[in-house]
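Wed. Picked up where I left off yesterday with DUF2809 domain-containing protein. The coffee machine is broken again, so keeping this brief.
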Amino acid sequence: MKLKTHYLILGISLLIIEIIIALYINSGFIRHTFGDYLVVILLYCTIKSFVKIRPTVTAIGVLTFSYFIEFLQYLNIVNLLNLQDNKILRIIIGTTFNFSDLIAYTLGILTVLILEIKVYYHE
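Structure written out below (tokens, as returned):
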């Protein structure tokens, strides 16, 4: 397995940004929309760091996973599993369904695909 360093560096950078957002920003666009936009890019970069998969396959997988998590939020899975007192899991899984999150995930993945195409065709 060959580690893709540029994806790993970007993934770690995005993780740090996501942690800062989670710890210090309680509301607004950055917390509720931009964080969701970034999280799919973070997941994409993490996967691409360790596994050689075509960009479209990775992007579709990440987007599907993100939609699934949002669907679990719609079902109120945190309360159904009695995890409402676990702050870390509440942050990771999320507790509130929002249709706008699906849009943010989609835009994040589209950004990744556009950047991948630009890099691929300009190397």
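Quick read: The chain has one domain: 5-121.
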